[in-house]
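Final report, Chapter 2: Outcomes

The project's central promise was a pipeline that accepts a single protein chain and returns its three-dimensional structure in a standardized token representation, suitable for archiving and comparison. That pipeline is now operational. To close this chapter, we reproduce one record exactly as it appears in the project archive, with the input sequence first and the structure output second.
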Amino acid sequence: MGRTTNQHYIPPVNFGYVENDLYRCGQPNELNFPFMEKLELRCIVWLAPEEPNQNMMNFVDDQDIQLHHLGVLEAGNASDPITEDMILEAFNLVLDKGNHPMAIMCNLGRHRTGTVVGCLRKLQRWNLASIFEEYRRYAGPKVRILNEQFIELFDTDLVRIPLDPPEWL
């Protein structure tokens, strides 16, 4: 009698379903790659200022995933708030259905990822209380008031909506 191998599917830290074919998370590791394969990602928006680790880069190459490293668009360190330019560049990718399925990531999937998702929720006309509740759920005890303020003050009129946007917009 042959033994079957039990495959475990472990999501990355702070993994979440944002919308159909749009996910959020922190940087996956080797234990998460089988789970990530199941998502059949076409694109990853990487928001951290540093490069993803080599194991993730190998995974991206092996899976033929487009990696857009937006974190290098700004000088500074990982604790600096995200910029409006980075948000708008992320939205150019997120709102293009040709990039889906897609994941939005930073190191831990908390602050930069949470700010992009929060601004997306604002674009979707969520109320601020719901946006902040979602942001805080992923940020945990490390909530950054500057990120919440950025989301609140983000001008959605700056976002270019494509002619054929995702159905969830």
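Archive annotation: The chain has a mean pLDDT of 92.
This record, like all others produced under the grant, will remain available to the consortium after the project formally closes.
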